[in-house]
Amino acid sequence: xxxxxxxxxxxxxxxxxxxxxxxxxxxxxxxxxxxxxxxxxxxxxxxxxxxxxxxxxxxxxxxxxxxxxxxxxxxxxxxxxxxxxxxxxxxxxxxxxxxxxxxxxxxxxxxxxxxxxxxxxxxxxxxxxxxxxxxxxxxxxxxxxxxxxxxxxxxxxxxxxxxxxxxxxxxxxxxxxxxxxxxxxxxxxxxxxxxxxxxxxxxxxxxxxxxxxxxxxxxxxxxxxxxxxxxxxxxxxxxxxxxxxxxxxxxxxxxxxxxx
Length: 260
Ligand code: COA
What we know:
Order of helices and strands: EEHEHHEEHEEHEHEHHHH
Bound molecules: coenzyme A
Strand order of the largest sheet: 1-2-3-4-6-9
Structural class: alpha/beta
Radius of gyration: 19 Å
Mean pLDDT: 97
Helix content: 40-55%
C-alpha cells in the first residue's frame, strides 16, 4: 500500500513512522486509519523490526479524529458508523499488540485519538509544553474506541475526570497519571527518544515480545489464576535461544548477540 499520510523511515531494526498531515495537525480520517492499519499489519510480521517510533510532522503530534470525517459520518447509517468505528478500533488494537517496542514521540499536542495513540505506545516521551486531552465530549462525541487502551494506562479515577470534562492537561499531569513516561524540554526530545530506543535494543526481541503478550493476560487477574501462565512463559523463555544467550553473555561478561 502506498502511503499518502504516513512517512516511514527504516534504520536497521528501528522504524520511524510519522503522521504526515500537518495542515490539519495530523488529524486522522479513514485514509490515515487504513494506512496505520496496513503499517501495523506489516510491522507485526516483520521479524527484523524491534522498535517503532511514532511521531507527528509539523506543529503537533496529532489533533485526533478529523472533525470533517466525524461530521461526514453523521449523514451515514448506524451500520456504516459502526463499521467505520470498528476499523478504527482494530487499528488501535493492532498497534497495541505489536510484538516490538512502540515509542511515542509527542510534541505540541496529542488530543482525542492522538492521546489514544499515545496510550497504545509502550513508552511515551513528550516535550514539557505539550498538551493532552480526551476532548471528545467537548465535541459531543466520546472517547470510545481508545478507552480499552487508555484505562489500563491512566486508571478509572483520572479517566472519569478527563473523559467527562474533556479538559486539556499538561505533560506533567500526563506523566502523573501514567499516560507518558518522560517529560523533557523540546531540544532534548530526540536524544531522549534515542536513549529509550537504545535501551529497547539492548533487550532480547523474543523476551520483549513474550512480555508484551503476557502483560495483558496477567493484568487485573488474581495471582493464582495466572500462576500456570506465568510459569509457562518463563519456562519457555529460559530454554529459548535468546534466553540461553542472554544468561551466557551475562556470565561471560560480554554483550548478547542481539546488541546492535
Ligand atoms: N480535525 C480536522 N481539522 C483539524 C483538527 C481536527 N481534529 N484539528 C485541527 N484541525 C485543523 C483546523 O481546522 C485548522 O484548519 P484551517 O487551517 O483550515 O483553519 C488547522 O487544522 C490548524 O488548526 P489550528 O487550531 O489553527 O492549529 P493550532 O496549531 O493553533 O492548534 C490544536 C493545534 C491541535 C491544539 C488545535 O487544532 C485543536 O485543538 N484541535 C482540535 C483537537 C481536538 O479536540 N480533537 C479531538 C477530536 S475527537
